# Entry
Amino acid sequence: MELLMGLLQNLVWAILAFIVGYVVNLRKLKRLQRMVQSFEIERASREVVLILSCREDIEVAVRQQFAGLGIKPQEVFKVHRDGIFSDNENDWMAYVRQVRDRVRDIRSFGATRVHFFTNAPVAMAAFAGALLDNGPQVYVYHYFGGVYRRVGILSHETVNLP
# Structure
């Protein structure tokens, strides 16, 4: 009888320990979920848009699609150039300096996420990617038949793909 009482007592303590552990871990999980949710809210509250355009100004087209893309930017930063680039390197570098200045403005603003739209030449997009590296998370959009769609995220994870 004493052996049965000992087993029963151990079983009760094991069940009690399991319940306490479960409740403690459930509270930790809920706290972690609240932290993640507040981080997402804070991150989204510092979203900005960067628009780089050449020849045709795309700002109106981009702004028209904010709601459909779920973007609510705090600020819109833009660099536009009328006309095409010449084969003179100084011509290109003047635009790159303007882009660099807008990226500095974005960093000063404290942006946590950048939505990047461009219709600039591919070479200019390479410069922009280099300038945006080591900064906030950058969502890259491409124009598909009248609609901008997100095509990727520029981040350390993307740069270091296996």
